[in-house]
Structures are given as C-alpha cells and as structure tokens.
Amino acid sequence: MDRRKRGAVVVSLAQTKSSVVQLRTGSLHGGLLEALRELINHGDLSPGARVPERELCARFSISRTPLREALKVLAAEGLIQLLPNRGARVATLDDSHLTELFEVIGILEAEAGRLACARMSDAAIAEVQALHYRMYAHFLREELPEYFALNQAIHQAILDGSANTVLIATYRNLAGRIVRARYMSNRLRPDRWKAAIDEHELILEALVRRDADRLASILSRHLANKRDIIMEHIHEELRGRMEKTKSRQQRMSHAETPPAVAEPAAE
Amino acid sequence: MDRRKRGAVVVSLAQTKSSVVQLRTGSLHGGLLEALRELINHGDLSPGARVPERELCARFSISRTPLREALKVLAAEGLIQLLPNRGARVATLDDSHLTELFEVIGILEAEAGRLACARMSDAAIAEVQALHYRMYAHFLREELPEYFALNQAIHQAILDGSANTVLIATYRNLAGRIVRARYMSNRLRPDRWKAAIDEHELILEALVRRDADRLASILSRHLANKRDIIMEHIHEELRGRMEKTKSRQQRMSHAETPPAVAEPAAE
DNA sequence: TATATCAAAAATGGATGCAAAATTCATGCG
DNA sequence: CGCATGAATTTTGCATCCATTTTTGATATA
Q: In angstroms, what separates the C-alpha of A222 from chain B's closest C-alpha?
C-alpha cells in the first residue's frame, strides 16, 4: 500500500453491517472521531469491550498514531476509558452514572428552553410548530423512525434557540454519551408514545406563549420520563440477559464482552 | 540522552518563570495535559499565539507523539484551536464567547447549589460555613491570595454538594476555559470586594436554610457580577493596549502575539 | 482437575522518519 | 518602495520502529 498520501481515504467499517464511511481528510482525525463514535453508538463496540487498536487500524487503513490521538479525545469526552498500559475500553454506563448524566442533560435542556423563550424569533418558533405537526402526523401513521427524527429535530431547535453555542456543544457532548442507551429503547409502548406526544404538545404551547418557567419544567419532566423508560428497558434487558447466562452456564471466567449496557463497573 | 525509559521525567518548563514541574508518568500524557493547561492559564502561552510544538517537546524532553495527543485533547476541551496543516493556537476568548461560557457556568453552578441544598449533610454544610468564616478573616486582613483560595474552596464545596460527578466534571471543564481571564482580574476594588463578601454571606445563609431557589438565584447573580468585573478588566486592558499600540506605531504586519485576551476571532 | 511458573506472543507508550503542506526569505519586477 | 515569485526552511500529519509491559499458553506440580 502506498504510504505517503494525504488524499481521501475510503474506509469500510463494515463487519456486522456493511456501511461504508468516507473519512474526510486533511484532518483524518476529525472524520476518524466521527467514525469511532459511530462504532460505539451503533453497538459495533459494546460497552466494557476492549477497543481493538490494531484491528481498527486495519479496518480504517491508518496507522496507530492518528487512532490513538482519537482515542485520547474520546477518553476526554468520556466515551471510552483509558487504562494505563492496558489499552482502551468502551465506557460502561452504570445506573448511577446514567442518572447523573440525565440530571445534567436535563438541567441544560431546561435552561436552553428558558433562554429559547426569550431569544427565539417568532418565525423560528413557527418552524418548531411546523416540525411538531409533522411529527404528530408520523405518530398517527405510526412511523417510528420519522417520528424519532422529528422529535430530535424539535429538541435540537429549542436547544439552538438558546443561541448559546457553548450550551449547545456541552449538551451535545453529554447527550453523546447516552446515545447508545437511547438507541436501545427505540421501541415504545403505545401508551408511552401517546404520553410523549402529549408532553410535546405542552412543550410547544409553553414555547409559543414564551412561558420560560413552564417550558423549563415541562422539558425537565419530559426528559425524566424518557430516562425512566430507558432505564426500564435496560433493567429488563439485564434481567433477561442474566437469566440466559444462568441457564446456559453457572459462570464464565473473563467475559470479553460483559453485560452489554449496565455493569457494576469498579470505577 | 537515553531514549527508552518510562520512569519519572523531571521537566523544567522555565523560560520566563523558573517553575519546575514534575511530570507524573506511566501515563506521561495526564501530567503533560496538566502542564500544558498550566502554561496556557499562567499566561506563558498567550491567547491567539501559535503553540510551538517542537519547542514544547524540547522543553518537556518528550517526543512529538505524546505532545500531539495532548494537544488534541486540549482542542477537544476548547482550550486550543487546531487548524488543519497549520498547527495549534491558544484559543482566544472574545466577548460573546466569554458571555456564553459564563451563562452556562452560571446555570451549572446555580443548579449545583439547588442540588446541594437537598443533598448536603449538615456536617458538610457546617464545613462550608467554617470555610466562610476563615475567608472572612482573610478579607478583614486583606490577604488576597488566601481569600481567593478559600473563595474557590467554598464554590467547589457547593459544587461537590451536588453529588453529581458529571455536573462537577462539566463545570470544571467549562471553568477551565476562563481561568486565564479570571487570573487577570485578581485585583479587586475594595467596594467590589465587600460586595462579593456580602453575596457570600447570602449564599451561606441560603445554604444553611436549604433554600434551593434562593441559593440558585444568588449564585447566579454572584457569578454574573464576577463576569462583569472580569469583562470590565478585559476592556480596560484592551483600551490601554490599543492606545499604547497606536502611539508606538501605526501598524505592525503580522502580530505573532495578538491582542492578548479579547480578539475578534474569525471563527 | 485446579493452580503455580515461566517463556512466547501481543499490545502499549513513546521515539523517530519521511512526504506533503505551509512559512520564510531572498530576489526580481513594476 | 511595494508587491509578486519561487526556492530553502520549517512545520505538520502520519507511518513505522522499538523497549517495556501485559496477556496468553504451555508445562509442571500438587
């Protein structure tokens, strides 16, 4: 393979799924970060699992240097954990950690809402309303993926409405750590779904009335509900997993891929 | 120089000041990060200035690999800016950015206070009170450095009282970006100083009464005041700098060290 | 069969090497 | 004197190399 060439690098990060990702270069680094985040969030790298440096190098056709730079950044972001002389592992999210993350994310979203009430233009609010109606339509047709996409767009629009880039970036960073957990509970019981829609109804109403306190409190509760749903899912999954593990065997020595999402984590 | 040896590395980062820093190793990386942050916050690396990779390598007696890893992390933290193929520069803080940072930091501190009211033990609150009295004593004796140290300790204690490690870490990250700006305005006009003390009085009172709303609002205002002081200082300094620059010469071509703290920053 | 021991293999942290890009600097032209 | 041009130098980004550490695996021992 030709060694020196800073051109575009086409990388197949397919193993389970056959997605092909174009690493934008110049700063190979940036694209690499995105790709790694994708791998983690998409579940190709399970929580607690060792990050296979050499293998990833091969997969991305890059040397260890840029990969290790990226890993250091991900570690700083909290997505992976770096153990001295023992490499990187994907960060696990135990219950308390998840709770803390949701708490802070909730704070930021609520305050973003407060700021949005004061700072968004009428036109911008109208756009959010439009998103809301479109989302509602997808709900009626039970089109889950489209629903989720618009749901997220609405939250993002409110966040952007805070007009505080630091707030937005901080939120993104924290939210990035729970993407995987959210991903898992992308199935909704109909009653939960309806409840979420109702909450969104209230959110829109508060935003339109520019009632900052009310919007903040609704957003906060809305997220708390989402958190409960997610945790419920995790616990269900954990229980299921435990039963399976038990029935299959009493113990396995060193699980290379431990309990998947929640883990005691001797931190 | 001996090449391979992972033992402790003693590094003299003295140039202007003769501070000697011990880089704890094993993960050379961590200590390096600290040292670099110190360099930036302490002002040895002015905002906007190029980060002299090779020179820092020499100064720390390390190769470029770990240094560059550290730079990537600092960039992710927002302390420096990485320009593709053009190296790193120390991040500049323009007015709006500083305002945004203070806004988010204020949010976090206020909410931390709210949580602290609910979660701190009576004993922990008593300790904060003790810190407060000690701080007050230093104020009376006009011992500025000791005053600042205890001031910070009190804010940290309240933050810790939130019992949310994510919140604490997020706060630390954001606060880390304005350390330098705070550093500059470590001179206080007596009236400001007294006002700050009064606010701290109120903070303690609210905390002791576990009045979450009140504590949150006071903390928020307290920080806003600090922000105003800092910005005032920056603007004064900027004005002074401009006059000097003007009187000295009409223009200089490419300032290697631009306006120091505030800069238009074509971001 | 379970555990201790130790050598082989692999992974990690860091140093060094090299091509491409950027910067500097000298020179030429208007 | 200002500005364009381009070669020499420096810097950057990444690949590769190597010592140390960790992990693995085989063998011996209880």
A: 18
